[in-house]
Amino acid sequence: MKNHYSILGWLTKLLVSVIFVSFITCMIYYQKLPYPIAIYIQAPFQIHDLAKSSLPSSLEIQFYASPNKSNISAVVIRDSEIPKQTQLNHIVFGIAASSHLWNHRKDYVKSWWRPREMRGFVWLDKIASTNSSTSDDDHFLPTLKLSSDTSKFKYKNKEGDRSALRLTRIVSETLRLGLEDVRWIVMGDDDTFFVADNLVRVLSKYDHNQFYYIGSNSESHFQNIRFSYNMAYGGGGFAISYPLAKALEKIQDKCIERYPELYGLDDRIQACLAELGLPLTKEVGFHQFDLYGNVFGILAAHPIAPLVSLHHLDVILPIFPNGNQVQALQRLNMPMKLDSAALMQQSICYDKARNWTISVSWGYAVQIIRGYIAPREMELPARSFVNWYKTADESAFAFNTRSLNKNSCQRPAVYTLSTAEYNNVTNQTISHYAHYKNPGHKCEWKIADPSLIRKVEVYKKPNPFLWDKSPRRNCCRVLPSEKKDTMVVDVGECREGEIIEMYSAS
Ligand SMILES: *[C@@H]1O[C@H](CO)[C@@H](O)[C@H](O)[C@H]1NC(C)=O
Ligand SMILES: *[C@@H]1O[C@H](CO)[C@@H](O)[C@H](O)[C@H]1NC(C)=O
Ligand SMILES: *[C@@H]1O[C@H](CO)[C@@H](O)[C@H](O)[C@H]1NC(C)=O
Ligand SMILES: *[C@@H]1O[C@H](CO)[C@@H](O)[C@H](O)[C@H]1NC(C)=O
Ligand SMILES: *[C@@H]1O[C@H](CO)[C@@H](O)[C@H](O)[C@H]1NC(C)=O
Ligand SMILES: *[C@@H]1O[C@H](CO)[C@@H](O)[C@H](O)[C@H]1NC(C)=O
């Protein structure tokens, strides 16, 4: 009889252990249960009966037992594999595309898409029959999806295109795919370039369990008047938190019917979100680029916020000279890899020996200007671009700008990124900028001509945590250089008491 009991006891122990271990394993696998959680086990077994080796090492468990060990509780304190912070794989991209432009525009998507790390779909009206012939590309692109039919919906806008209806429904169609572990649905166009790591940085600041609608306005004041300052412009991209997407999906088809006169996908989304009472949460790193020409002025004086997106890549000039837009975007790959948080962040400093103003847009371009220009002016984008309403003047932008050529002496010498690398001894990035544009020749000032400088080297320690702090411009310092034609600049967090000072106080 005694033997019987001990076998029974042993079996109970085994059973309980198996259940316990499976439970924890399932929990980790599906990452669904909130934690810390407590599991109470009332069974005649010892703590060390739990085979520790069968538990994933990422799990930290604390055991509590009553003195007679009849009641053991295990509390999962932390699972390092359950990410608290939003990561790239929590995002599903919905890319609005059309079959007649896809062959050309897919190169834009390819320039930022990371196939193994990202989830998302390109939504098309027709999927070209070149399914297998373009298979080379397919590995580097999101999965193509056919939008469902929208011919039953009314569309009454005379200037727009009824494909807007199809594209508006990307949010609900994405949701209905039922993907696991989605925190955000991010919309963009086929001519939108995303800096994915910065998108993650921006979204991880917000609680994805709440309703959020995150994006930005147009650069054109008139566009914002015509559509809305409360609207996230679709091409600049916007993010909708998962619970909000669920709420939107419930009302979307009926809501779309209430606004047949609207123009596009973004105003339809905003109209429905307004019915839910949702405001736009503005993040200025999303760039719609309702502009023509050269966006240099904006990229050289980016707001102090992570650069998230660039849009209208067919409309604006290539962001780097000498080459097409795709090649230009590819040039951002290296600085993005080295220090994505700092990409196109502006630092301003002065070469006091030569009376020059220096502006560094990290990973993009450096400018040297004769004389001293105050930070409050240098931080404004120079008008290198033209408004979406081409005849509009400088008052038609939705932000402050400054004149590009106030006088011929203060036209900048411009240097654009050529290469960048990481030095693993000094733990710094070195980015090289090559002379691209001379300042005006007709200057009679006695100040030295900045175009004497042919190359600029910028040293900077990468800082992935830049945006975890309150936003602040990095400082730059002109370092001594051995070569006459080379300027060496150090960029980094401002030191205690360091300010962007035009004149020495001496
Ligand atoms: C063991 O302790 C629990 C409470 O901690 C008590 O309910 C139970 O009766 C005890 N069992 C024995 C065999 O003492
Ligand atoms: C077992 O322990 C837990 C946590 O300490 C307690 O909440 C529970 O009431 C206990 N059960 C018994 C029967 O003592
Ligand atoms: C493309 O090919 C895959 C298999 O290679 C097939 O499953 C899919 O349906 C095809 N898509 C189209 C639109 O033909
Ligand atoms: C810089 O400016 C100061 C004051 O404006 C002037 O005295 C000095 O000569 C200038 N230096 C050079 C190198 O131009
Ligand atoms: C630095 O890089 C070199 C070459 O890639 C490598 O051999 C070396 O081990 C690295 N040193 C450190 C400290 O990482
Ligand atoms: C560079 O980083 C490595 C590893 O984090 C560290 O051991 C080393 O001291 C750093 N070197 C400098 C110059 O900061």
Number of helices: 13
CATH architecture of the largest domain: Alpha-Beta Complex
Bound molecules: 2-acetamido-2-deoxy-beta-D-glucopyranose
| CATH topology name of the largest domain | Spore Coat Polysaccharide Biosynthesis Protein SpsA, Chain A
Strand order in the largest sheet: 14-15-16-18-19-20-22-21
| Spans of at least 5 consecutive residues with low confidence | 32-36, 42-53
Shape: globular
Transmembrane segments: 7-30
Keywords: Membrane, Transmembrane, Transmembrane helix
Pfam family, one: DUF604
Question: Could you explain how this protein is built, in words?
Answer:
The protein is an alpha+beta fold. It folds into three domains: 2-79; 88-288, Spore Coat Polysaccharide Biosynthesis Protein SpsA, Chain A (Alpha-Beta Complex), CATH 3.90.550; 326-492, Distorted Sandwich (Cation-dependent Mannose-6-phosphate Receptor, Chain A), CATH 2.70.130. Helix content is 25%, strand content 24%. The protein has helices at residues 2-30, 99-112, 135-138, 163-168, 170-176, 196-203, 221-226, 242-258, 265-275, 296-300, 325-330, 333-339, 375-378; strands at residues 37-42, 59-65, 71-79, 91-96, 119-124, 143-146, 184-189, 193-194, 213-215, 238-241, 281-282, 291-293, 309-310, 346-351, 356-361, 365-370, 385-387, 413-423, 428-437, 455-460, 475-479, 486-492. The strands form five sheets. Strands 14-15-16-18-19-20-22-21 form an eight-stranded mixed sheet, covered by helices on one side. Strands 6-5-4-7-10-9-11 form a seven-stranded mixed sheet. It has a three-stranded antiparallel sheet with strand order 1-3-2, with no helix packed on it. A hairpin with a 4-residue loop joins strand 18 and strand 19 (428-437). Bound molecules: 2-acetamido-2-deoxy-beta-D-glucopyranose (6 copies). One 2-acetamido-2-deoxy-beta-D-glucopyranose (NAG) binds at residues 127, 131. Residues 66, 68, 70-71 line the site of one 2-acetamido-2-deoxy-beta-D-glucopyranose (NAG).
